[in-house]
Amino acid sequence: MPRKNRLHYRNAFYHVILRGNYRQAIFVDDRDREILLEYFEKAVNTFNCRIHLFCLMTNHIHLVIEVSDIPISKIMQSIFSRYVKTHNARFNKIGRLFQDRFKAKMVCDDAYFLELCHYIHYNPLKANVCQYLDEYPWSSHLHYAKIQKFPWLTTDHIEKLLKDYVKAEQDHYHDFINNRDSRYSRPNFFEVDENNEVIIKDSINKKVSNMPMLSLENMPLQKIAIIICDHLNISMDMLKSESQCQTVMLAKILVTYFGHYHAKYYLKDIALAFNMRSDSLSKTFNRYLRKMHQDPFLKATLASLECKLATSDPDKLIL
Length: 319
Description:
The protein is α+β, with helices and mostly antiparallel strands. The protein has helices at 30-47, 72-91, 110-126, 141-144, 156-165, 172-184, 221-232, 246-262, 267-273, 278-291, 296-312, and strands at residues 9-10, 13-19, 50-56, 60-66, 103-106, 190-192, 198-200, 211-212. The chain is built from 11 helices and 8 strands. Helix 1 (30-47) packs antiparallel against helix 2 (72-91) and helix 9 (267-273) crosses helix 10.
């Protein structure tokens, strides 16, 4: 039976869990962990996403990530396919490292977010891999506890929630972490099963204000290209030309963006349509992707094209 497609929402928070295949170790040494954190940072800079929490355990990973325009599946694929490739090359291994695809549950509630903060950061202690949380170097706890900085980590959302919910004069994080069971426990909100895995019940506040993401899964790449070329006032033939004109390059990048991230075409297939090498298209695309969300013109162009693509086939906007 085919897998169901994931529903993707703009500006949504996701709790991601990824396990080693057959519960095997994901990391062989600390360099493995450092490499994965480097890929986290690259994803933040490339995909305009924000990572709020993380914990790297021996055979599983917890991550709370906020997405923008790029679907969570594409971000996870980029991070973990790179990691597996690097890991296997380092240790001369082949085959799967992770168990099936990642689990991702949308975080729709403030209380849920705080419970995840506590649960994720307490993982090493509950697994008896350390005696004190401050001793474990592979968790965002160190950043919140002001012991070590991860410059790419976002903390403002959780810090605001802590100020709103935790009645402490100062150092709201430590007060919550140390006194959660006695003072801030929400036993009706989540349970922990016999495998020490958290089971989050249905959200009690339903604070969902996320925008659905564009889905173009059944739209031919040519149709996407026609709409983009029309918007930029260039001919379709220009896409296959070797022209380095700024408008032509922008058209290629936009077709790649919507075709790859929203219609699920492979980069190599898009490059073939442009008579380009896939590695050349990938480098150009990644360069543009980093500035798409900072450049006002690019942001406005993306917004206009999203409306046109959605209304050209209205059933393809997931509701």
